[in-house]
Every structure is written in C-alpha cells, then in structure tokens.
Specification:
Layout (H helix, E strand, L loop, with lengths): L2 E5 L2 E4 L4 E8 L8 E6 L6 E6 L6 E3 L7 E6 L4 E6 L8 E8 L10 E4 L3 E6 L1
Parallel strand pairs: 2-11
Antiparallel strand pairs: 1-3, 3-8, 4-5, 4-9, 5-6, 7-8, 9-10, 9-11
Length: 123
C-alpha cells in the first residue's frame, strides 16, 4: 500500500512563492517517477511537472515552465514543487502522484495519488 501526503499549500498574493512537499511511504519510492498535477474548479486535472526516478530529468507544463521547479530527496522519500511568481490562474488543488515506471510522463501512467493540497493565489 502506498501513501502520498501533500503539504505546503495555502493562500498567497500574486507574485509570491510556495513550496509544496509530497511525502511517500509504503513502496520503494526512489524507483519511480513522481509527478505533480493540479485541478482548478470546473476544470479537468492537468499535468504540472514530473521528475524521473533518479531526479536526472524533469519536465514541465508550458504554463509553469521557468516559474516552477520540481526536485526530490529519495533519502527522505519526498518530492518538492517550488512555485515562484505565482499567478491567480495557478489557483487549484495540487496533487502528487507516484508513477508506474521510472520514466512515467502521462497522467495514465500514475497509479497512486495523494489527497491534494489547496493553492490559492489572490490578485
């Protein structure tokens, strides 16, 4: 059984920063890719960023490229999402997910999901 717990969300003004954390337990965390996804009210869940099992490769949605940074600490079973220059359109519930493989990229390749953490960016 895998458990993922997100933390670090909150209310921030536009232009501010937040760092989200995703703590994992119950599986060999370091062997799998981890992704961040988000879902805004009335919209479908969308990809934000993913990091491969070793942290050697990262990928970002165009909408967050240059502002967000994903990283991982396999010794702590934790993945981070540093979010800078936040915009009101970044408001959403952010979810982390554990991939099925070392290089999982698309949403259907992620089997285990956290409960999400709310990020609200005010204008």
């Amino acid at each position: 059984q895998v458990q993922l717990v997100e933390s670090g969300g909150g209310l921030v003004q536009a232009g501010g920063s937040l760092r989200l954390s995703c703590a994992a337990s119950g599986r060999t965390f370091s062997s799998y890719a981890v992704g961040w996804f988000r879902q805004a009210p009335g919209k479908e869940r969308e990809f934000v960023a993913v990091i491969t099992w070793s942290g050697s490769r990262t990928y970002y949605a165009d909408s967050v490229k240059g502002r967000f940074s994903i990283s991982r600490d396999n010794a702590k079973n934790t993945v981070y999402l540093q979010m800078n220059s936040l915009k009101p359109e970044d408001t959403a519930v952010y979810y982390c997910a554990l991939g099925r493989t070392r290089y999982a990229r698309t949403m259907d390749e992620f089997d285990y999901w956290g409960q999400g953490t709310q990020v609200t960016v005010s204008s």
